[in-house]
Amino acid sequence: MPTSPMKNLLYRAALPFMAPTPHKQMTHICTGTELHHLPYYEHLLIRHHVLGASLLLDDGTRQVQVHTSVRTPAHPCTAQTVFRVASITKMASALVTLMCIGDGLFTLDTPVTQLLPEGPHHNVLQGITVRHLLCHTSGLRDIPAMDAALREGRPFDDVLSAEGVRAGRPGEQMAYCNFGFGLIGCLLEHTTGQCIHDLFYQRLFVPLGMRATLDAASLDEGSIMPISRVLPYRAGQDVTVTALGRTALTAPNPERHFGHTAGAMYTDCASLARLLMLIGNGGIIDGQRLVSEAMMHEMTMLQSSTRTRTYGLGLVLLERSGISERRLLGHQGFAYGCVDGAFIEEGTGRMVVFLNGGASEARTGKLGLVNRDVLTWALRKEMPSWT
């Protein structure tokens, strides 16, 4: 993954020569409104070396879905295919957390030391609140010890004991942190007494009618889109279920379930559209309020930012005039090669959900180039042509 401007340039220069191409390898299944510019969309998929994808566009009255399969390397896709959506999971995790706040279990500014199981290195969490975790201002950092602890099934306290995990004071600056967001799952289990799989299912997935889960072990692996890194591409190295996902979520384990709420949700485009609709409607879906107006205001207001990113609570606040004159609310998901995106346009409710099994990971700032181009085409060209 290109992690600096120079690496980004080198990555983009190598793509045409070293990445697999879906050119003349694609078939599409389209449902709903006719897609007026399918050849241009296919051109974008080729340009960004996309390996299998689902696209959903919705303007509030009409919707189209396009499910694209690639023959070589094989990435089959139908309406029944589910995707590991990586950090798009953070929107769902934030919503469930805000629901629990609405139940009075804790507040945004409750110290997490009061909500997590105690351990020898509990002091590392001093000063960190729920809000800090949800907007990446906790001062915690992602370190290799986190991945090792997840692989070996060790408690989060082992990560807290590792050097470098606390690299700043809470609230001082934004530093994107999957470990911090993973701790959300631990505190949810500790405060509710429920396994996160059951909690998300009952509070979010069922009310929204989502086909979604945090428990990959419960899925038919044949229904999952394989994820491949296109550069470097290695045949046979596709990911469907990670080692972490092969352990079923059958009971709460708040010391060890810190690897799911940051990026382990599996779902589809139509389900993510329902989640975006909940956010766009201010916490209301089908006439039912699931999240309080006050909590939705907190979620969608600016909570933290860097030079290249603005963030609410589990929510990217995307302001790019070249894409839309309005603010877009949503999230991206980068993991193992996928470059997913799910966004809703404020004021209009227009939605773009794009999930894939691998794509160019080149970026402009923090925005994947493939997401930038799909959003621009969808909002500036495709959906306007429907009228």
Can you describe this structure?
With 387 residues, the protein is of the alpha+beta class. The protein has a domain at 5-82 and 224-235 and 265-385: Beta-lactamase (3-Layer(aba) Sandwich), CATH 3.40.710. It has helices spanning 5-18, 38-47, 89-102, 130-134, 144-152, 156-160, 178-192, 196-208, 269-280, 293-300, 369-385; strands at 26-32, 53-58, 63-70, 83-84, 266-267, 284-285, 288-289, 304-305, 310-311, 316-318, 328-335, 338-345, 351-356, 363-364, 367-368. A hairpin with a 2-residue loop joins strand 6 (284-285) and strand 7 (288-289). Helix 3 (89-102) packs parallel to helix 7 and helix 3 packs across helix 8 (196-208).
Largest sheet report: 7 strands, antiparallel
Q: Which regions have little confidence, pLDDT < 50, spanning 5+ residues?
A: none
Q: State the total count of DSSP E strands.
A: 15
- Label the overall shape: globular
- Mind telling me which CATH architecture of the domain at 5-82 and 224-235 and 265-385 this is? 3-Layer(aba) Sandwich
Q: End-to-end span in angstroms?
A: 39 Å
Structural class: alpha+beta
Find the CATH topology of the domain at 5-82 and 224-235 and 265-385.
Answer: Beta-lactamase
Percent in strands: 15-25%
Helix content: 25-40%
Quick check: average pLDDT? 97
Rounded radius of gyration (Å): 20 Å
CATH class of the domain at 5-82 and 224-235 and 265-385: Alpha Beta
Which H/E pattern describes the elements?
Answer: HEHEEEHHHHHHEHEEHEEEEEEEEH
Q: How many helices in DSSP terms?
A: 11
**How are strands sequenced across the largest beta sheet?**
1-3-2-13-12-11-10
